[in-house]
Amino acid sequence: MNTLTLEYINSILPPRPDDSHKMTFGQVLNIAGSIHYRGAAYLSSLSALRVGAGYVTLASSPSVCDSVSAQTPNVVTLPLPPRQAQQAIDIKHINTQSIAPQAVLQLRDKLAQASVISIGSGLSISQSTDQLNRYPNPINGLIVPDGNSEFFYALLTEIQANTHPVIFDADALNFMSHLLHHPTSTAQKPISFTKNSIITPHPKELSRLLNVDVNMIQAQRVHFASLAAKQLNTIVVLKGKHTVISDGEHIFINPTGNSALAKAGTGDVLTGMIAGFCAQGVSPLNAACLGVYLHGLAGELAANELSQYGVLASDLLEYIPKAILRVLNAGH
Ligand SMILES: NC(=O)C1=CN([C@@H]2O[C@H](COP(=O)(O)OP(=O)(O)OC[C@H]3O[C@@H](n4cnc5c(N)ncnc54)[C@H](O)[C@@H]3O)[C@@H](O)[C@H]2O)[C@@H](O)CC1
Ligand SMILES: Nc1ncnc2c1ncn2[C@@H]1O[C@H](COP(=O)(O)OP(=O)(O)O)[C@@H](O)[C@H]1O
């Protein structure tokens, strides 16, 4: 078990060759955001650019793409077609901002081109009103997915054989929990995290994935992060104070960060940072270490100027470059 250090982080930062262009630093395909979580799409896309990715494409519903474009000129958008109602009676149940499963066909070329794919930040699975009538599982609190769930399933099927890094966050994890624990509840075939994947659960999300009480997870964070990495064949980033990173063999503990990060949207920033490092050719395990350490350091630097009370997730975007400079300067 290793605690991440400034020196180690400095040693795994990717190079920035002079003779380079935007594609040198990789393409992120970020599938994120929904009608109530437009901010998650913004934060996860911009944070990937802030750590040095060359090109970020946000694929989402048209309204999310419009919102993000209105806030920043830096992100390329790929609006995906909304789901259509099959019958007149469905119309009141279907939020037209849900993405059609057929959108995966439109994404096919982008999925193949991308250096890394991030899926799930704010990509709600609970957009349709019929979900509100369903009961949550009493153990894991998970409600049967709906809304974007058909799109999710089509997407996960499409990328099963993908060997590029894929980062699964937030609702992508909740959807996977549903598939893992209710395999016969739908007529769908088994599906798993992809090779070279990274998952970024907070303790409740890991509790849903493992079907283990969240208090048990918190009492044995290293054990459950490592167990999940082995069982699910993925790299696990178990978030919270002293984030644990494990590939099932190695374990890293993050010393950076403070309560400034305990604010909505900071997890979306982390997902983008890890994706941005993967895009630059860093191994998924090192990308997870870089993202987690620098995310925490950005929170500390932001809190030095704004207080632990006053930092916003969007403030982190300004402090990521300062955190990188701090690490670079430590190397001289
Ligand atoms: N501006 C935006 O658009 C934002 C969008 N977000 C998106 O909102 C969606 C829902 O995410 P949420 O995380 O709110 O919903 P969840 O339902 O996954 O998590 C909330 C539950 O998990 C528990 N929990 C969270 N962190 C915990 C921890 N460290 N220890 C123990 N329990 C913990 C909470 O107490 C709560 O019961 C995600 O798709 C996410 O990406 C959020 O990131 C917030 C900001
Ligand atoms: N008290 C804390 N100390 C250190 N890091 C924290 C603390 N609280 C939250 N974080 C970090 O902030 C992020 C929160 O992510 P998450 O729970 O997914 O939030 P959201 O879904 O709102 O984006 C994680 O990276 C977590 O490790």
Automatic annotation (TrEMBL):
UniProt name for this protein: ADP-dependent (S)-NAD(P)H-hydrate dehydratase
Gene Ontology MF annotations: ADP-dependent NAD(P)H-hydrate dehydratase activity; ATP binding; NAD(P)HX epimerase activity
List of residues binding AMP: 239-243, 267
Catalytic activities: (6S)-NADHX + ADP = AMP + phosphate + NADH + H(+); (6S)-NADPHX + ADP = AMP + phosphate + NADPH + H(+)
Gene3D superfamilies: 3.40.1190.20
Positions that bind (6S)-NADPHX: 40, 122, 202, 268
Family: Belongs to the NnrD/CARKD family.
Organism per entry: Shewanella psychromarinicola
Alphabetic keyword roster: ATP-binding, Lyase, NAD, NADP, Nucleotide-binding
